[in-house]
Amino acid sequence: MDANEFRANGQAVIELIAQYLETIEQRPVTADVRPGDIRSLLPEHPPTSPESFDDVLSDVNDIVLPGLTHWQHPNFYAFFPGNSSYPSILADLLTAGLGVQGMSWLSSPACTEVETLMLDWMQELLGLPEKYRSTTATGGGVIQGSASEATLSSILAARWRITQGQVNHDGDTSKLIAYCSSQSHSSIEKGLRIAGIGTQNIRVIEHDESFAMNADALETQIIADKNAGLIPFWICSTHGTTSSGAFDPTPAIGLIAQRHQLWLHVDAAMHGIAALAPEFRWVNDGLELADSYCTNPHKWMGVNFDCDLFWTSDRASLLGALSILPEYLRSAAAESGAAIDYRDWQIPLGRRFRSLKLWFAIRTDGTAVFQELIRRHVAITQDLATLVASDPRFDIVAPHTLNLLCLRIKGSSPEEGDQLTDQLIEAANATRDVFFTRTVLNHRSVLRFSIGGRTTEHRHVLSAWGMLQKLA
Amino acid sequence: MDANEFRANGQAVIELIAQYLETIEQRPVTADVRPGDIRSLLPEHPPTSPESFDDVLSDVNDIVLPGLTHWQHPNFYAFFPGNSSYPSILADLLTAGLGVQGMSWLSSPACTEVETLMLDWMQELLGLPEKYRSTTATGGGVIQGSASEATLSSILAARWRITQGQVNHDGDTSKLIAYCSSQSHSSIEKGLRIAGIGTQNIRVIEHDESFAMNADALETQIIADKNAGLIPFWICSTHGTTSSGAFDPTPAIGLIAQRHQLWLHVDAAMHGIAALAPEFRWVNDGLELADSYCTNPHKWMGVNFDCDLFWTSDRASLLGALSILPEYLRSAAAESGAAIDYRDWQIPLGRRFRSLKLWFAIRTDGTAVFQELIRRHVAITQDLATLVASDPRFDIVAPHTLNLLCLRIKGSSPEEGDQLTDQLIEAANATRDVFFTRTVLNHRSVLRFSIGGRTTEHRHVLSAWGMLQKLA
After folding, report:
1. Chain B residues inside the 8 Å CB shell of A197
2. Is A79 on the interface with B (CB under 8 A)?
């Protein structure tokens, strides 16, 4: 493909995307396929001569699109939203087109500097504590691919700090104890496991009736561990849990972390971004007591995946954990301390120019667009809650302060309620008109109604609720 | 931005990229900036109202482009190449436009199935052992973001296997010993460090005169460690080291790994892809003895970053190390064993539809285009070597079987040679007409002449060599 073919084919892809997103509501949300179906439609072996781009796009239309779960569909209520937006799609295109590496300042200065500025812009827009700004002596932020990687990075920084760097030499994590709640995301256990903190050294703290971590139980456990000669080193406090959207009490947890000198990481992957609307700034309460924080514009803000923002107020520990400087990566700029080399702020070495999508979205859509989205979804969720509460067959089983409603069918017994709820989810998903995911809260089946799609409006949710009532 | 604005703006971005790549040779390779220069040209605070897309593109043209190191420039000889190509740029656009998640089969079936097929296609195109195909009982492959992540994944799989899964519970890595050479990439030490294998437990095996690992020294060290009650568990063999492009002797190392039951990972990030041309299939010699392997289409093959291919013949160990299954991620498809959930094959949870760029590139450019690129660069490098060898002021300091030439100025003493070589690199880079990086081999300064740009032709290299001669 040469430059002129790229121009023509590029227009075709732009048009395909525009049509796909404009007409997405006419598609089922999910695919009518079983494992292996899509592969069976494609050649088992690579082509031996080049094919036309038109043929490729035909296969996209005929085979790929019908085989997708449509995350941009207004009736996608599963998992958490993974929104994109037009400006950020174009930014990702530009990222691919420029094809530069941002592993170090020297490897593409603008890639590093725009990213640093975007993290500082977002610190302002979210109203985060000043200590996270890159212009401070000890803080700063970086774009990571996902909250999983941000969590792992924070664990590694904490591990380095508590051992005063010794872990880099002896790898000894045997006495290090980490704390989370039963509602923490699976990436917490995964990150700890990767870092050599096995399940024996992870304390799963009980939650209260709102599914938030019990701070008293946390401190009791920390003291017990210290008394047993162990070394408590890291706490994860979640702002918006995956199962129910619960908020751990970071103001209280933060004081405990400080009292016992643990690293406090706040995982606000889903809900931290709500702070773009000033009336929801409470989602980040307590953050001045944390050592690190992450939230995902690729969820509610509509900046394409992958875009996780990770800040720390202790960059020295992060760099201590993740810096390695071979001869072939040295540069005068970095050694002077004047430049940031983001490879030392993350797990991988290479990195794309991801800040372009934040820059494009903030400048062309603007904060008001993000605020409208957040406010709309919260309002829809609260209205839905009123409707659900008025149907005696259903229970709302968790607080629903923002955009996630957890509900189940009561049934004549808890067991029957489980069965009916599971059947309801299956029946609803089988229509392919909606897509819900299931979770378990207090050992009971729950339907998660997650309302966060960029195109999801009142009418979609009303119609989905009508379907659930009919099926119940 | 609405769909129609997206159409118009999309065309503008396509045009910007086409012009950028068509005229890239007219730009200096590197930016004339100091740390902070680019940020100082941008507003310190986010805009309070939306701006036009045209204004954003003006800033891209006026501020961002002049602030880049141009990785797609024909005179980029630094690091390793990071090529993009037109089809893969359009695939990345489509990836962004569809905005789906590939964390599990259920979360977008086509995303998983196209990826699995692409790994199998690449197994064929590279002539890799059958045992890595997804259609076998124990093997399979996945796209990772970078070789760093692939390396870390292989370490975690090896750690799991040697401890029979116990490491997930106790995190005990205290006796585990890993092996690499002084020429292994920095991501090896970084990955080991992350996994709780400190420098005390990393054995850096000596290299021979060709900078390849000394296999006898490796086995001697493994035996000594076993005799000391330690547990050797992982070896990294590099096919194409970063400093000099050296190849560790995997056929010999593999036998040692089997004899002592270590996991053998082959890091062929840069040079494994050369096997696309049948006469270079030797780059993967010994792979039938390895447990895992990675190579990067985003380097020499011209499939945009991020696209690292990671295969293992022991997927059970990889899944043992990385699987976690909370309620909200369960699916019947995965539990039946019929579907792959790639989240369990990698560090993060979320993942983009990255296989589209392999699919687009293989189908529209085709293998012949990749082969031509590889053959051209190897031929240019060998011709350059002849020229350098005929200039008595220079030494070629390492074998140069493929596309990396390591040279230095002799000087009247090794110290003077170092000084003159460092000055030469600085003077050449100061012209901004070329970009080289420096390394150190046997404690001496070396200029790496890495020839791998998609647009790099004979004339560029001849001209760059002429410049080096003049400056010398």
Report:
1. 171
2. yes
Please tell me whether residue A441 adopts helix, strand or coil conformation: strand
- Angstrom distance (rounded) from CA B64 to CA B79: 21
Cβ contact, residue pair A114, B186, below 8 Å: no
Task: Per residue of chain A (472 residues), give pLDDT as tens.
Answer: 999 999 999 999 999 999 999 999 999 999 999 999 999 999 999 999 999 999 999 999 999 999 999 999 999 999 999 999 999 999 999 999 999 999 999 999 999 999 999 999 999 999 999 999 999 999 999 999 999 999 999 999 999 999 999 999 999 999 999 999 999 999 999 999 999 999 999 999 999 999 999 999 999 999 999 999 999 999 999 999 999 999 999 999 999 999 999 999 999 999 999 999 999 999 999 999 999 999 999 999 999 999 999 999 999 999 999 998 776 666 676 666 779 999 999 999 999 999 999 999 999 999 999 999 999 999 999 999 999 999 999 999 999 999 999 999 999 999 999 999 999 999 999 999 999 999 999 999 999 999 999 999 999 999 999 999 999 9
Q: In what order do the strands lie in the sheet with B202-205?
A: B140-144, B308-312, B292-295, B263-267, B231-238, B176-181, B202-205
- Per DSSP, B42 falls in state S
Chain B residue with Cα closest to A447: B328
Selecting from B39, B149, B305 the residue whose C-beta is nearest the C-beta of A117 gives: B39
Residues of B within 8 A of A172 (CB-CB) are: 174, 198
Rounded to the nearest angstrom, the gap between the alpha carbon of residue A20 and the centroid of all alpha carbons in its chain is 24
CATH 3.90.1150.10 segments of chain A: 367-471
**Residue ranges of chain A that CATH labels 1.20.1340.10:** 3-68
Smallest Cα distance from A296 to chain B, Å: 11
* Interface contact flag, B98 A365, Cβ < 8 Å: no
For an interface test with B, give the residue of A72, A92, A93, A128 to mutate (most B CBs within 10 A): A93
* A242/B contact by beta carbon, under 8 A: yes
In CATH, the architecture of A367-471 is Alpha-Beta Complex (3.90)
| Assigned architecture for domain B3-68 | Up-down Bundle (1.20)
Work out the end-to-end distance of chain B between its first and last CA atoms, rounded to an integer number of angstroms.
54
Q: Which of A33, A347, A354, A429 to mutate to test the interface with B (most CBs of B within 10 A)?
A: A347
Cβ of A79 within 8 Å of Cβ of B96? The answer is: no
- Integer Cα distance of A244 and A397 in angstroms: 9
From chain A, the residues in CB contact with B344 under 8 A are none
| Dist. CA B4–CA A415, nearest whole Å | 51
d(CA B97, CA B59): 23
Q: How far apart are CA A168 and CA A157, in angstroms?
A: 11
B112: Cβ contacts below 8 Å, ≥ 6 apart: B102, B104, B105, B339, B340, B341, B342
**Contact assignment for B16 to A97 by CB distance below 8 Å:** yes
Q: Do the Cβ atoms of B218 and B235 come closer than 8 Å?
A: yes
Distance from CA of A414 to the nearest CA of B (A): 18
CATH class of residue range B94-365: alpha beta
Q: Which residues of A touch B72 (CB under 8 A)?
A: 98-99
Strands B202-205 and B231-238: unpaired
Give the distance from residue A119's alpha carbon to the nearest chain B alpha carbon, in angstroms.
11
Q: Give residue A203's region: left, alpha or beta (phi > 0; psi -120 to 50).
A: beta
What is the DSSP secondary structure assignment for residue A207, as one 8-state letter?
B
Q: Which residues pair with B94 in a beta bridge?
A: none
Rounded to two decimals, the ipTM of the complex is: 0.96
Q: Which residue has the tokens 């060898």?
A: B389
Q: Is B209 on the interface with A (CB under 8 A)?
A: no
Confidence (pTM)? 0.97
CATH 3.40.640.10 domain locations along chain A: 94-365
Partners of residue B195 in chain A, C-beta under 8 Å: 194-196
